[in-house]
Specification:
Elements lengths: L1 H21 L7 E6 L6 H8 L3 H7 L13 E5 L25 E6 L6 H8 L3 H7 L13 E5 L2
Length: about 150
């Protein structure tokens, strides 16, 4: 009986360890490093390099993106994304990376919208809208989010 209990415990530990190891965040190639200055946010840093702020948080193991401090050195990943307009930090390395998409306009998602309906409304492919906004699941968009609508 003891042997069976010990076997079950070891098996359970192996399963839990394997699940934790597979939950590691994605990693990207590093473009360079940015030292946070007073008043900077992940979004303004993301705009400076044309990089997804959530990817910066993941790359640097930042759990709460609102909690970055002056003096922190952040690795900037090559996870490019078009971001809505807003404050833009001064880049600290290389020329600013151009956004992969030029936004003709911005659209705030309403309840009941789909990428297909939005694409028809603006005359743009829904796949192009998804690409320019870093959307990987075309069936998952949230009301209230703002989308970059690229030039057709």
């Amino acid at each position: 009986m003891r042997r069976a209990s010990a076997f079950i415990i070891v098996l359970l530990l192996l399963v839990l360890t394997a699940q934790a190891a597979s939950a590691a965040p994605a990693r990207w190639a590093i473009l360079g490093y940015h030292v946070v200055r007073p008043g900077e946010t992940l979004f303004c840093i993301g705009r400076a390099y044309g990089v997804d702020p959530w990817a910066i948080a993941a790359q640097n193991s930042i759990v709460n993106p609102s909690r970055i401090y002056a003096g922190m050195s952040l690795a900037i990943p090559d996870a490019y994304r078009a971001l809505p307009p807003g404050p833009r930090c001064t880049p600290q390395f290389g020329p600013p990376v151009p956004s992969p998409c030029t936004c003709a306009t911005y659209y705030t998602i309403q309840i009941g919208d789909t990428l297909t309906r939005i694409g028809i409304r603006f005359g743009v492919s829904p796949w192009r809208i998804a690409e320019c906004n870093g959307i990987y699941n075309m069936n998952y968009i949230r009301a209230g989010d703002t989308l970059c609508i690229p030039n057709p």
